[in-house]
Write a structure and sequence with these properties.
Its EC number is 2.3.2.27. Keywords: Membrane, Metal-binding, Transmembrane, Transmembrane helix, Zinc, Zinc-finger. Strand 2 and strand 3 form a beta hairpin. This protein has a 3-stranded antiparallel β-sheet with strand order 1-2-3. It has 6 helices and 3 strands, in the order H-H-H-H-E-E-E-H-H. It is about 55% helix and about 5% strand. The longest helix is centred in the first third of the chain and has 41 residues. Helix 2 crosses helix 3. The chain is mainly alpha-helical. The chain has 2 domains: about 60 residues; about 80 residues, Zinc/RING finger domain, C3HC4 (zinc finger) (Herpes Virus-1, 2-Layer Sandwich), CATH 3.30.40.
Length: about 160
């Protein structure tokens, strides 16, 4: 007698029934139920996220159109053109070290026009920092408020 396979005709018939899917029907049902639950959970999560995004979008739009806090935040997002032009431009002269524009990551070369931010002293290419300051009011490196320092320099 071999312990590796069926020895009787009945055992052979049982093996064929298992191979044909006789006792695997329970396993198939469990897998289908798990897939249905997982799919339902994914759809439910997507629906909740979508509804939350829509609600937040409408709330922000309503606050902006009614002059609420959203409008104030949008208005104070970047620097005004007058404050931007108040920040001095100068031709870069290399001293003991070298400088790198933290926005474009290029090395600043001798003679290039740069802006030195009055709040912190960091310098950047004019094109890079102007683009940044149109949408932000802070230094890209240290996050100091550039608008207040530019306004103070403009008053002097």
């Amino acid at each position: 007698m071999s312990s590796y396979g069926p020895t009787t005709a009945a055992a052979a018939a049982d093996a064929l029934e298992v191979a044909a899917g006789g006792s695997y029907r329970v396993c198939d049902t469990v897998v289908l139920i798990c897939l249905a639950c997982a799919s339902s959970l994914i759809v439910l999560t997507a629906a909740v996220c979508f509804r939350r995004a829509i609600a937040n979008g409408y709330a922000a739009a309503a606050a902006g159109s009614n002059g609420g806090a959203g409008a104030a935040a949008a208005a104070s997002c970047g620097l005004a053109p007058s404050a931007l032009s108040a920040i001095p431009m100068l031709a870069y002269r290399r001293g003991a070290g070298w400088a790198q524009c933290a926005i474009c990551l290029a090395v600043v070369r001798d003679g290039e026009t740069v802006r030195r931010l009055p709040a912190c002293g960091h310098l950047f290419h004019v094109e890079c920092i102007d683009l940044w300051l149109r949408s932000h009011a802070t230094c890209p490196l240290c996050r100091r408020d550039v608008g207040e320092a530019a306004a103070a320099d403009e008053k002097v």
